[in-house]
Amino acid sequence: MSKTPVHPVDEVLPLRQLFTFGLQHVLVMYAGAVAVPLILGSALGLTSAQVIMLINANLLTSGVATLIQTLGFWKFGARLPLIQGCSFIALAPMIMIGKEFGLSQIFGAVIAAGAITIALAPVFSRLLRFFPPVVIGSLITIIGVSLMPAAAIWLGGGNPAAEDFGNPANLLLGLATVTVTLVIYAKFSGFIGNLSVLIGLFVGSLIAAAFGMTNFSRVSEAAWFELSPPMAFGAPQFSLVPIMVMTLAMLVIMAETTGNCLAIGKLTGKPTTQQTLGNAFRADGLSTMLGGLFNSFPYNAFTQNTGLIALSNIKSRFVVAAAGAIMVLMGLFPKLGALIAAVPTPVLGGCAIVMFGMTTVAGIQELSRVKFEGTRNGIIVAVSVSVGVLPMSFPPLFEHANGALKLVLESGIFLGAITAIVLNVLLNNEKKTNDSVAAEMAE
C-alpha cells in the first residue's frame, strides 16, 4: 500500500534538521524579540534586573506562543510555520499605559485584550472574502518593503543614535554576510543550501569576532538557570481605559496576523482558510493572555521569518516548533540566550537584506497572477502599496497624530490592507456592476 503524501507544512524532518533549521529561525528573529522589553524597560525607568526578567519572560513565552501557533490544539493555532514574538504594534500603547497607570495595569490590559481577541476571532475570520489575489499580493509586497528599515538599522549597527552607526566596518561586515549567504545559496543545494542564512550568520559572527566587533562577555555573566515567576511585578490590575487602548492594538495585530497567514499560506502552498484565520487569532489571544500572566506582552507572527521560509524553501511547521522549543530553553537558560545575542547586528542586517527581499518577491509573484489589462487592479495596487509604505518611508509624516489614530497610522501593513480592501470593493464591484448592465443591454 502506498503512503498518503504529506504536505510540506506537516512534514516532520529528522531531529538534526529540525534543530538547525529551527536555530536559523531563532537567530533571525532574536533581535526583534528582545527589543520590546528593552525599549519598554528604558521608557518606564525599570532597573537592569527588572529588564533582564522581562527579556527572559519574553523569550520563554515567545517559545510557548510559537508552539501553540505551530502545533495547535482544538481551535487554537494556525498549524502553519508562524514564529511568534512580542508585537511592536503594542509597544507605544504599553508605554502610554505604563506611564499613566503603572506596570501592573499594562499586564492587566494585556490579559483582558487577549481574552477579547479570542472572543472576536470567529467574527474577524469571516473577513477573508475581502482578500482576493490583488489584495493579497499588495499586502505581501507591503510587508516585504516595510521590513527594509529594520534591515538598514541592523546593518548600520542597531542604534541610529550611536556615533558609530553606519560606519564602514559595519557596512563591510554586512556585505560580507550577504556575500557568504548568496554563495552558499547559489553553490549548494539540499541541506547545506537551505542553511545559507545560518551559515551566513555564523561566518559573519566569526569575522566580527576576529576584528573585535562582537562581545561574548555577557555569556559568562549570564546565569545558568533562571525562571521568571508569574506576576513577578504584582497582581495584574484591570481598568477600562487601558483595556480599550490595548484592545485597539490587538485589532491592528489581527490585521497583521491576517497578512502573515496569507503570506505563509502562499509560500507553503497551503491556502489560508477562514478556519485557519480563526485558529490563528485564538492562538494570538491565548498567547497574549499567557504573556500578561508571565510578565510579557501581546504576541503575533514575526514577519521577518517569512523571507527565511521563501529563501530556504523549508516549509515544515515542526521546524518553527523546534524554534519555539529553543526559545523556551533560552528563557530558562540565560547563558544560551546571551550566546545567541552575541551575533552582531550588522550580520543580522546582511542576512535580512536577502530574506526581506524574498518576502517582497513573494508579493510580486502573487501580483503576477492578477489580471491588469482591462481592469482597475493596477490602480488598486498602486495606491494601496504607496499608502502602505508611507509610515516606513517617512515616519515624521504622522508625528502629530495622537492616541488611537497614531496607533493605526503607524502600521503600514494595516493602512495598506484597509486601502486595498476598500478600493477593491469600490472599484472592482462597480466594474462588475457596469459589466452586468452592459451585458443585459446587449441582450
Automatic annotation (TrEMBL):
Keywords, A to Z, come to: Cell membrane, Membrane, Transmembrane, Transmembrane helix, Transport
What kind of membrane protein is this, topologically? Multi-pass membrane protein
- TM helices/strands, residue ranges: 21-40, 46-68, 103-124, 136-157, 169-188, 195-213, 233-253, 318-341, 347-367, 379-398, 404-427
Q: Does this entry carry the keyword Transport?
A: yes
Pfam family for this entry, one: Xan_ur_permease
The protein's location, in the record's own words, is:
Cell membrane
Q: Has the keyword Cell membrane been applied to this entry?
A: yes
PANTHER family (UniProt xref) = PURINE PERMEASE C1399.01C-RELATED, URIC ACID TRANSPORTER UACT
Q: Which family does it belong to?
A: Belongs to the nucleobase:cation symporter-2 (NCS2) (TC 2.A.40) family.
- Recorded protein name is Purine permease
Give the organism the record lists: Pseudomonas arcuscaelestis
